[in-house]
Design brief:
The protein is α/β, with parallel strands linked by helices and about 400 residues long. The protein has helices at about 10-20, 20-45, 90-110, 120-125, 130-150, 210-220, 235-245, 255-260, 265-280, 285-300, 305-315, 325-330, 340-350, 355-375, 405-410, and strands at about 60-70, 70-80, 160-175, 175-190, 195-200, 225-230, 250. The chain has three domains: about 10-90, no CATH class; about 90-150, no CATH class; about 160-410, no CATH class.
Length: about 400
C-alpha cells in the first residue's frame, strides 16, 4: 500500500473556527482581561483571596466597559477596588491613536475639507453634530499627553544607537497643500530596549529643524550615543556632527541602495542592486572595500554616476562594521522605524490631506507613543553587553570615534 508524508489537514470546521472574527476577538479579550487582573493585583499588593502584609486594599467587583480595537469592539470587566480608585492604562494606551485619527477626520469635516477618499466617512459623520469647541476640547486632552511625552526626561538611560528617519505628509497650510517632513528619532537604550525619543515637523531643506530637534534631545538627557543611522541629507549630517560629537555616522544602506538604482535604467537596476548588496553582505571592512572597488570598476563604463557614488560614498555605509557583529544587521539601516511608518501610512491613506500641522503632529506622536510603549514592555532588542567587548581590530573604544577616524583605525 502506498504511503504519503503529507501532513493531515485540519478539519474544515476547525479552519472555519480559527478564521472567524469571534475566535480572534475571544483570544484578544482573554489576554486583555488577564492584563487587567494583573494590574489590580499590583495595585492592591495581593492576589485574589491572598492575605499579605503588603495588601493595601481589597477587590470590590467589576464594571463593564467596551474597548474598540482593530478586531472589533470587545467587552471587558474592569476590576474595582473597595477603598481606592483603581485606574487602568489599558484604554488610554490602545485608544490614544484611534482618537487622534478620528479627530483628524472630524477636523476635515468641520473645516469643509472633503476628498474622494474620505467621502464615505464624512457622510457617516454628517448625522452627528460636532462643534469647533467640542473638537477643540478633544484635541486639548490629546495634545497635553503629546506635549508631556515630548518633554519627558531621558537621562535615566544612555542611547548607544540612534536612528533618524523622515516621512512626508500632505498638509493644508496657508490655503495651499504642502508636503511636510515628519522626523522620527528612535534609540536603543543601554538595556537593549528600543524607545522612540521624539518626533517633529521638519523643513527638510534646512538644518535648523534638525539642530532644534537634537538640541532638545540633548537638553532632555540623551547621552552615550555611539552610532547615528540616517539618510545622507546634508543638514541632518551637519546636525549629527554638531550635537553627537564622537559618535560614528552610518548612512542607511537601504537609502543608499535606492539612490543608486535610481541612477540607472530599469533594465540595469536589478544588477546594480545585486552588486551593491554583495558589498553590504561582507562583514570585514577591507574585503568590503575591495569588493566595492570591483563593483565601481564594473559599472564605470556603463553608468559613471553609479561608479562615482560607490567610489565616494560607500564608506559611509560601512561604519557599522566597527560594531559587534551581532548588532550590525539591526543598526545598518533605519528599518527599526519602518513598522511605525507603516502604521502612519495606513491611516494617512484614509485622511489623504491633513487639515493642519497640529493634526498631523498629533497623529504621528500618538502612534510614536504607542509603538514606544510596546517596545519598552517587550524583551530587549539587542544584547548591549557586547558593546563592552573588543570584537576585533576595531573595538568598543573605537566605536566612540568619528567615522573619519574609524577608517584609519581599520
Amino acid at each position: 500500500m502506498a504511503t504519503t508524508n503529507a501532513k493531515p489537514k485540519p478539519a474544515n470546521n476547525q479552519v472555519a473556527l480559527i478564521d472567524t472574527e469571534d475566535f480572534i476577538k475571544g483570544i484578544v479579550q482573554t489576554a486583555l482581561q488577564e492584563f487587567l487582573e494583573a494590574e489590580m493585583t499590583e495595585f492592591i499588593g495581593a492576589g485574589r483571596y491572598e492575605r499579605t502584609d503588603e495588601r493595601c486594599d481589597s477587590r470590590n467587583g467589576y464594571k463593564q466597559r467596551t474597548l474598540d480595537l482593530k478586531v472589533g469592539s470587545i467587552w471587558l470587566s474592569i476590576p474595582q477596588a473597595r477603598n481606592g480608585c483603581f485606574h487602568t492604562e489599558l484604554f488610554e494606551r490602545y485608544q490614544r491613536s484611534e482618537r487622534a485619527f478620528t479627530l483628524a477626520i472630524v477636523e476635515m469635516w468641520i473645516n469643509g475639507v472633503s476628498t474622494r477618499k474620505v467621502s464615505g466617512i464624512t457622510e457617516a459623520l454628517s448625522s452627528v453634530t460636532f462643534s469647533k469647541s467640542t473638537v477643540s476640547e478633544l484635541c486639548k486632552s490629546l495634545d497635553a499627553q503629546v506635549d508631556a511625552w515630548k518633554a519627558r526626561d531621558l537621562s535615566a538611560h544612555e542611547y548607544p544607537y540612534v536612528f533618524v528617519d523622515a516621512l512626508y505628509e500632505d498638509v493644508r497650510k496657508g490655503g495651499t497643500v504642502v508636503s511636510e517632513g515628519m522626523l522620527v528619532v528612535c534609540g536603543v537604550r543601554d538595556d537593549g530596549k528600543r524607545e522612540i525619543l521624539d518626533a517633529a515637523i521638519a523643513d527638510t531643506e534646512s538644518s535648523a529643524t534638525y539642530n532644534e530637534l537634537f538640541c532638545s534631545l540633548k537638553e532632555r538627557g540623551v547621552s552615550g550615543v555611539r552610532l547615528v543611522t540616517s539618510d545622507a541629507h546634508s543638514g541632518l549630517k551637519a546636525a549629527i556632527k554638531r550635537y553627537f560629537q564622537g559618535a560614528a555616522w552610518q548612512r542607511c544602506q537601504v537609502h543608499f541602495l535606492r539612490d543608486a538604482t535610481m541612477k540607472v535604467s530599469l533594465k540595469n537596476r536589478c544588477e546594480v542592486s545585486t552588486d551593491i548588496s554583495s558589498i553590504f553582505a561582507i562583514d570585514l571592512r577591507d574585503k568590503a572595500m575591495q569588493r566595492a572597488a570591483e563593483v565601481a570598476d564594473r559599472w564605470r563604463a556603463i553608468t559613471p554616476k553609479v561608479a562615482a557614488m560607490v567610489d565616494e560614498d560607500i564608506e559611509q555605509c560601512l561604519s557599522v562594521l566597527a560594531f559587534p557583529k551581532e548588532h550590525q544587521v539591526h543598526i545598518r539601516t533605519t528599518n527599526p522605524i519602518e513598522r511605525l511608518n507603516k502604521e502612519i501610512r495606513r491611516r494617512d491613506r484614509v485622511i489623504g490631506i491633513f487639515p493642519n500641522e497640529a493634526s498631523a503632529m498629533r497623529l504621528v506622536c500618538t502612534l510614536c507613543i504607542e509603538q514606544s510603549e510596546e517596545w519598552l514592555s517587550s524583551k530587549p532588542y539587542l544584547d548591549m553587553s557586547l558593546l563592552d567587548v573588543d570584537d576585533g581590530p576595531v573595538g568598543a573604544v573605537a566605536c566612540l570615534r568619528p567615522v573619519e577616524e574609524l577608517k584609519e583605525a581599520s
